[in-house]
Amino acid sequence: MDKIKLEIAGLSYSQTQSGAYALVLAEANGKRRLPIIIGGFEAQAIAIELENMTPSRPLTHDLFKNFAEQYQININEIIIYNLVEGIFFAKLYCEQNGVEIQIDSRTSDAIALAVRFECPIYTYEFVLSQAGIILEDEEQNDDEADLIDEEYDMDDFNADPVERLTLSELELKLKESIENEDYESASKIRDEIKRRADN
To answer: With the C-alpha atoms ordered 115, 119, 120, 122, is the resulting torsion angle positive or negative?
Structure first.
């Protein structure tokens, strides 16, 4: 299977899940976005590295990197290789002395390590097809740091629970969410449209 390269496009507070964050990955040579809900600790670990901040003591992911470097272990790439019932699965592709091994990982941890090892993030077409959101027209922003800690307005989405909306209303809401870069809401609306199509 051909790999599709992803880049970190944004990180925002999740207003639907307390203590959670929405990490948005962007297709490197396309218009699709892949929103992933992650925990606060992993969000902090990713944001700190993207902002080039140095904590007073090493975080867990920093410790992992320091440990790996002492034993000449490098992470060459990470791949988000599957999506099952809304849960993403990832693998670390590590190398030591010319020998490559794959290690299973939570996606949030894999990305926190990818930013530390400065290695590429990939996924497969079927994952993007299932969970990706397509943006029709978007101005590209070369400065990823500007999007970190951006908060999306979800008031309109929360006012109308998706289960009560008609299909045409859902499609309209999906378009509005994408235009407003409210990827978390768009992801939930997309899932509801898909659920109805499958029934």
So the answer is: negative
Nearest to 49 by CA among 144, 182, 183: 144
Task: Read off φ and ψ for residue 84, nearest 5 degrees.
Answer: -130, 120
pLDDT digits (tens, 9 = 90+) for 39-95: 888 888 998 898 888 888 888 999 999 999 999 999 999 999 999 988 999 999 999
Q: What is the pLDDT of residues 100-110, one digit of tens each?
A: 999 999 999 99
- How many separate domains does the chain show? 2
Contact assessment for residue 80 and residue 106, using Cβ atoms and an 8 Å cutoff: no
- Which domain covers residue 17, as residue numbers? 3-151
Whether residue 132 contacts residue 157, with contact meaning beta carbons closer than 8 Å, is answered with no
User: Measured at the alpha carbon of residue 71, what is the angle toward residues 69 and 76, in degrees to the nearest 5?
Assistant: 55
Sign of CA dihedral 136, 85, 148, 25: negative
Helix (H, G, I), strand (E, B) or coil at 175: helix
Comparing C-alpha atoms, which of 182, 131, 192, 133 is closest to residue 156?
Answer: 182
Same-domain check for residues 131 and 186: no
